[in-house]
Amino acid sequence: MYVYNMYWEAKKSMLLYPNSTQTDESFRNFWKGRDSLMENQCKVGFVNILNPDLTLNYSIGKEILSKLD
């Protein structure tokens, strides 16, 4: 994720994993390089593909976008 941030000059990146009970989704700061004082943030996110009743989660897009804040 750090390398993607450097290549695309992004400030944040997130690696998504499906259907996990993991709860720590905090962004962490990383120094981007010697010639730049700009930091970038990386985190791991988790989304449920299925609803509790085992139907497909059609709100997954909204769930992912909410994790970017």
Specify the overall morphology: elongated
Strand order of the largest sheet: 1-3-2
Order of helices and strands: HEEEH
Q: Unreliable segments (pLDDT under 50, ≥5 consecutive)? A: none
Helix content estimate: 10-25%
**Major beta sheet summary:** 3 strands, mixed
Task: Supply the key terms.
alpha+beta; 69 residues
Care to describe what's here?
The protein has 69 residues and is an alpha+beta fold. The chain has one domain (2-66). It has two helices and three strands, in the order αβββα. It has a three-stranded mixed β-sheet with strand order 1-3-2, with helices on both faces.
Describe, in short, the structure shown.
The protein is of the alpha+beta class and 69 residues long. Helix content is 20%, strand content 36%. The chain has one domain.
